[in-house]
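Run: sequence + magnesium ion -> complex structure.
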Amino acid sequence: MIIKRFKAENFRNIEKCDIEFSPGVNLLYGKNAQGKTNAIEGIYLFSRGKSFRAREDSELVKFGTDGFRISVEYEDRSGDGSLEYALFGKERLRKKNGYKINKITEMIGSFKCVLFYPDDLGLVKDGPEERRSFLNVAASACYPSYMKYYSDYKKALENRNCILKMIQKGLYIDRRELDSWSESMAEYASHIYLFRQDYIKRLQRYTKVVMLDISGGKEELYISLDSDIDDEITDRQRVRMEYERILSESLDREIAAGVSLYGPHRDDIEIKINGNSARSFASQGQQRSIVLSLKLAEGEVIKETTGEYPVFLFDDVLSELDEGRREYVLSGKNDRQIIITSCEPDICLGYTDREIDVSGGKYVSSHR
Ligand code: ATP
Ligand code: MG
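>> structure
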């Protein structure tokens, strides 16, 4: 799919803009603090349902104004489409093809992007939370029911944790209530586990190839899901029973800790490079290659699922990559649309189809 246009009003530092995009490589360039990432943030909001960097939507409203409106026009296999999102005070408005929609999932399901931004470079070395968050965002783009199971799981987990804490403090609690939350947790966990396992296996096929390509065949990347369940178990009822067993066997330790110690909220992605743990041994350059491989592979899995590539948004990360890797990303542009931001106008090695000069929340476009 491609994005054809992004419009915004009173969004971040943008008073009003109407940016057209080309298929292929689009570069947003300009000095620091001009509005490059703001445009990426607005576009990505339609794919994720929320900003990737604001805690609250109200932060997105241009200072001194009372609301914002943003929209995208895109084209996918089924034709042209548009999405609009506005916030005025507490009032939210979402529209698809001009008609009001209530569910955020209708918006997210329509427009798919893969975002790569500087914080992602911590995916390899940072804690498991970053990798779980990557997994949640990536898997929910491929399995429409993933997020529902995940939020149900989180509710059950919170309730179970609350009860464990009360037992730990010696406050009387009905054990049947604890058992019932454990059962719910095991049920939702089994769905999440199988989605994650399936997703990681699909992702692995592509990350491996991309990493071999960009390292000239020298580096073999292997990713796997690090969870409580033996990956031989693929039947959902068996996975559920396995979680029930783990939760009941670890109950004493969990009461002592006052918190649930097992389940998908503790999962991690294990990343190995040439057989060694990437978290402990990957060099800076290898970390970049790994994250780049994960992001490009994320796009491949979306293509496998939906039949077309998502829009790739590369916010300020191209300058972190050497020329060979940049060339690798940009030369695949024939069937991928890429939007890149950078302070350097010649970052794209002549591959740009459209260049957009960004200054003070204004966007001036020129074709190559
Ligand atoms: P860099 O190259 O440093 O990453 P950038 O061009 O990506 O810069 P943006 O992150 O897009 O910069 O931010 C541009 C400007 O938007 C900043 O000066 C910031 O203070 C401003 N800004 C952020 N939120 C708001 C808001 N709600 N209202 C007005 N201005 C805002
Ligand atoms: Mg920026």
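>> summary
The longest strand covers residues 2-11. The mean pLDDT is 95.
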